[in-house]
Task: structure prediction
Amino acid sequence: MYSSAVLPVVATPSAPALVLRPWRAEEIEQLIEVCRDPGLRRYTSACVETVAEGERWVQIQETGWAAGERFSFAVHNQGTSAGGLVGNVVLKEFTEDGSGAEVGYWTAARARGQSVAPRALEVLTDWAFDTFAERGLKRLVLRHQVDNVASCRVAQKCRFEFDQILAPAPPRFPLEGHLHVRRTDGELPRVG
Result:
């Protein structure tokens, strides 16, 4: 049902069109190259260094799609000479009752500052709320470390309201974090 999801992101006057699609094995070399960035490694555990690791990572994404539990999209520039992999967005961690889930993202170093993350996240968010409405999805959360100022800006641009400070959770989150929430039901986020 979901494996054919390909999501277009329209071009803006300052940024090319993007396409979000399920990960493919032929993207592993690009993934390895993107994961060499120390900035990306600082904030994500999704980095891979070898083809074998990349194959396992893509298999995990494919398994998540097949199970209907994790929906990870490779983000690519579309129709430009730059082309190629520029990021990742993911819908994951559905609550038991299906009313909530988590989103995540990262952007390749060469594409930062080009609104890749907010544009891709906005399209993912719309897709999630539309696709999983029958499951009862009404709440998406976004987590980031407090020192990841760029992720906080992405959350704000995409109308994920600040909800609370999160305690450190090493090794994934060695520092305090922020929890941002976006809802479809109009309920205001809890602050504090």
